[in-house]
Amino acid sequence: MKNLLTYLKGDKVIWVITLIFLAFSLVSVYSFVGILVKTEGGAHFKYLFKHTIYVAISLLTMYWVHQKDPKYFAQLSKFGFYIAVALLIFTLFFGAKVNDAGRWVKIPFIGLTFQSSDFAKLALIIYVSRLLVKKKKILDNWKEGFWPVVIPILVICGLIFKDNFSTAIIVFGLGLTLLFVGRVPILKILSLIGGGLALIMFVVLIHKAIPDLGLLPRLETWENRIFNRLDDDKSGIENAQAMNAKLAIYNGRATTDNFGVVGQGMGSGQLKGYLPEAYADFYYASFVEELGPIWAFVLIMLYLILLYRIIRIGLKSESLFETYTCIGIGILVLSQASVNMLVCTGIFPVTGQNMPLLAMGGSALIITCLALGIVQAIAVKQMTDIEKEDETILTNI
User: Fold this and answer.
1) Which residues contact 360 (CB under 8 A, 6 or more apart)?
2) What's the burial of 302, exposed, middle or buried (CB within 10 Å: 0-12/13-18/19+)?
3) Which of 53, 46, 45, 58 is nearest to 19 (CA)?
């Protein structure tokens, strides 16, 4: 590990945590994909091999990006935002459907899919960070400062909302956080929240009144998930999934031969076979069942340390753009992990958020590593600046 880190610049702690997560994901995915083997066929090794390819691509992406100058991210942010909007519009009309949700885009010839919202989240963070710096002196002005920053957030959330309510809420919350950090007046942020809630209610009422328009084809699914969360006695697929997730967590501490703290053992989980996405949306439940509460605590601490290191890099930067970008990326990673845990423990309704860096690979894994690569690029720049200052001081002595 020490020899490997000599080739990796930036924050060593972030590299170590990332490598630990990705290495462990290979083991956990092999253990958790049993449900896919049952429903779609194939062998465990088939899914492990596919995930290994994604892990390799993700690591190469992070390594390549962390060598770049952060100024290029700001310069390309507008282009990245337009690409994200184009992908979301394409997905809206031509997206491949899985579980009645058209969130995926199929890559021609190779048969792989990715979620355009994964790229859109990162593109929005970078673009809004740039706008906050550009408009920092006129954020009090509704027309010239506030709306130019807010409209990109509303556009991305609006395009995601139709098929992915939970992701749209996370993106909206992330946007509000960036606005708050960027010192947008609090009254304007509160008005945005009120307007957003009113707009959602208006769209829901239109859908209820004229369902043939198909504005919210998944509204019934969202309602069932919320009502099932409020009433545990209700039957339903989502409610059964949530109950099995909580049982898996209980099963992780119910062993008698290891004092109930180590779990059932890697590969020995029982409830993962009844969780349709044990390798993604219900990853935390499967993790606790097999490894127990002690390692679950370690997992939470690793995410918190990752957040701390990312925020630390952002606050050390002399560039506001880099600070906002790091804060946005850190909160994005932690929010996705938190939602996965809260869903598995029954606090939140069932949603489609997986565990960053641990769930079975795909666009989410690659984009997360891309985001961490951006953070590392900022860290590398800071280290380079410090080295230049030291050289200047030594030269002047």
Assistant:
1) 25, 29, 32, 33, 47, 51, 279, 280, 354
2) middle
3) 58
Q: Tell whether 197 is covered by a domain.
A: yes
The count of other CB atoms within 10 Å of the CB of residue 92 is: 16
Token digits for 284?
A: 């935390």
pTM above 0.90, yes or no: no
Compute the distance between CA of residue 364 and CA of residue 281 in angstroms, rounded to an integer: 12
Residue 269 in any domain: the answer is yes
Residue 28 lies in a domain: no
**Structural domain count, the chain:** 1
- pLDDT tens, position by position, 61-103: 999 999 999 999 999 999 999 999 999 988 887 766 655 555 6
Q: Is residue 143 part of a domain?
A: yes
| Rounded Cα distance, 336 and 316, in Å | 25
346 is written with which tokens?
A: 């029954």
Q: What phi and psi, each to the nearest 5 degrees, are found at residue 185?
A: -50, 135
Per the CB < 8 A criterion, the answer to whether 325 and 15 are in contact is no
* Range from 20-24, 258-262, 363-367 carrying the lowest mean pLDDT: 258-262
- The domain in which residue 327 lies consists of 73-355
